[in-house]
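Re-run with default settings, no changes from the original entry. Doing this only to confirm the output is reproducible before filing.
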Amino acid sequence: MKIKVFVGILGVFGAISAHSASFHDFAEAIAQIESRNNPKAIGDNGRAIGNLQIQLKCFQDAAKFDKELAKYQYSHCFDPRVSKRVLWAYCSKYEPRALQNGDWVTLAKLWNSGCGWKSKTGAAKTRAIIYSEKLKKELSAKRGK
């Protein structure tokens, strides 16, 4: 399912630019940031796998929300299709309104900092903001191609 939205209407809520973006674009941008879109990537000292760098707890949490993921094992996160489904489920569970509205900045902060991202302070909050800025650049670069 693709969500298209005129991102410019998001205004102060995290607009990227006055162009449309889809969940597919968002997932590709996250994959580029996380692993240079390498489905075989292993990071975070072995705690994150696949092109979206999914951790076990994230996979398990998403699988509780999206029962279709229950047929997979964590190691299936090396498959970009499974990883993308995990990303969709995680965003659907914790930020359904942002997902519906195409608020990719909010979803980037969620993906970077976890479900408690709104209460983060200090360095953790700064990392989430920096990550969302990377997302904006990736989406802009994608549109420029």
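The chain has one domain: 5-139. Residues 1-19 have pLDDT under 50 and may be disordered.
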